[in-house]
Amino acid sequence: MLVMNIYDIDLRKYLQQNHSKLTWKERIQIITDITLALSRIHAENAIHRDLHSGNILYSQLNEIWYISDLGFCGPADKPLNSIYGNLPYIAPEVIIGREQTFKSDIYSIAMLMWEISSGQPPFSNYEHDYDLAMNIVNGIRPKIVPRTPLEYKNLMKQCWDADPSKRPDKNNNFEMENYTNSSKLFTSKLHQFDDLPKPRNATEAFHSNKSYNNFLIPNNIDDFDKLSSKKNSASSISSKFKDEDEAHNNPNLHSEEQDELELPEGRICF
Question: Which residues contact 27 (CB under 8 A, 6 or more apart)?
């Protein structure tokens, strides 16, 4: 017998409706749920291949977030022959034609972390075309929202590193256990981009044109060690966080340099 679970809302709609009311503790709990679900997929030696906020569903009954849309999920040793997904969430190495790996899913997690922190999908004001693909391959990432907790920010940057080997995983300190309705934001599709360079980390920031000057954090960041017991081992980001008003996303640049280089932007579940 196939049992169909009822889910209340996807992450994208949830953030559109509730982002301004979310505390950082609640945001961190969301990404913790997602990474726990992904770890269960990876534990089965499977890669999701199409993680984005339209595929993350909330069960009010269980008070937990799940990963859905496993249509392209499959064994890690059976790669797809084409690029498929929602472009802003696709890892740069996949864009240039390399095989998808567990680390490709981790890159998508970084984009979800940014979306949870900002309340909007990454690169939402840009067409999902060759130019955006080239920017991603060249290391352009969304601008980190001011007052993002330091450890959250550092983990996010590690997850979107151009070098997949530098991204964390469940064996490398990534143990979460231990404003638009445009259809392009929801649509995963086949992509083919030719003659793209090798992925690298950026020397520029690329971000939404949404203003964060009045961005407010509802609650102070004090102690996230008191996350609910069912996920209290989310040691990578749920320890103690510090607010930091840093507007750059490149560890090799000072914020003054970065300011000059910023570009304006625009179901079965686990």
Answer: 116, 117
